[in-house]
Amino acid sequence: MSLDRNQLIGKTAILLLLQDNYKIPESLQKRGWKYCKGKVGSMDTQTVIAAVETAAKKQKLIQPNLYREYHAIYHAIIEALNGVTRGNNLIGTVLRTVGLQFAVVRGNPYKNGEEGDWIAVAFYGTIGAPVKGLEHESIGLGINHI
């Protein structure tokens, strides 16, 4: 049970998110990995979660009728939001708003194929008071097994 250092799922999600010219889609296809990207802005944590889950469902990264897959992406999203919000996933209730880009990657980062798939969610964007210009950058990453 060792990670394949040439295919780290969290690093892949972050690079996919941050680098417009990163040649990741080709390498993902070779590995049989799936991915999607999107944007969300809100003062509501539920809206952020729903945006990522919806994108993952539409791109067939998860099967919503399988609880383990829905559960895995939910926990990856919450973990990534923890990074963005510095450990307190409240947004609007404490007068904060986010403007985020996200990337979701699904694949097996292990040398042994029997380890199964994992899912990574990466966020990058801004968080701050709901006043234009009073926000700052933030990033978060969440990884969970399926």
TrEMBL record:
<protein>
    <recommendedName>
        <fullName>Hut operon positive regulatory protein</fullName>
    </recommendedName>
</protein>
<dbReference type="InterPro" id="IPR036482">
    <property type="entry name" value="Regulatory_HutP_sf"/>
</dbReference>
<comment type="similarity">
    <text>Belongs to the HutP family.</text>
</comment>
<dbReference type="Pfam" id="PF09021">
    <property type="entry name" value="HutP"/>
</dbReference>
<keyword id="KW-0805">Transcription regulation</keyword>
<keyword id="KW-0010">Activator</keyword>
<keyword id="KW-0694">RNA-binding</keyword>
<dbReference type="InterPro" id="IPR015111">
    <property type="entry name" value="Regulatory_HutP"/>
</dbReference>
<keyword id="KW-0369">Histidine metabolism</keyword>
<comment type="function">
    <text>Antiterminator that binds to cis-acting regulatory sequences on the mRNA in the presence of histidine, thereby suppressing transcription termination and activating the hut operon for histidine utilization.</text>
</comment>
<keyword id="KW-0804">Transcription</keyword>
<comment type="subunit">
    <text>Homohexamer.</text>
</comment>
